Amino acid sequence: MPLVRLSLLRGKPRAYRDAIVDNVYQAMHERFNVPKDDLFMIVSQHDPEDLIFDRHYMGMERSDDFVVIQLSVSNTRNQAQKNALFARIVERLQANPGIRPDDVLIHLLEGDKGNWSFGRGLAQYVL
C-alpha cells in the first residue's frame, strides 16, 4: 500500500490536481501492481514562499508546474521496478495534465511491511 504525498503550488484547478492523482495511481497500478482499491494520497498546495526548490538543480528547467511526489512503500521492489515507475509517472503526467518531465520530482521512501497499520491498531501485513 503506497501512501503518496503530492506537493504543488497553490492555484491549480481541481481537474489538474485530479489528473495528477489519477495518473500517479495508474502508474503505480501498472508498474508496482498496486491493487485497484489501494488509493491513499495527500494533496498539498503551497504558496510560493512555502514550496522552495532550485529551478536548475541537476540541469533541470523547473517552472511553476513543479510537483513533488513522495511515495511511502514497502521495500519489496528492485531498482528496475522503481525506474519503470519513475518513467511511467513522468510519461503519464506529461500526457495529462501536461507537466514537463523537468517539473516532476519523485522520492521513494521504503520501509518494512511491519511498519504499516491500515486501521484498528494492527500491523495487517505481518499478522
Automatic annotation (TrEMBL):
Kindly give the Pfam families that the UniProt entry links to this protein: Tautomerase_2 (PF14552)
Do you know which InterPro entries this protein is assigned to? Tauto_MSAD, Tautomerase/MIF_sf
Highest taxon of the lineage: Bacteria
Matches recorded under PANTHER family = TAUTOMERASE YOLI-RELATED (PTHR38460)
| Protein's recorded name | Tautomerase family protein
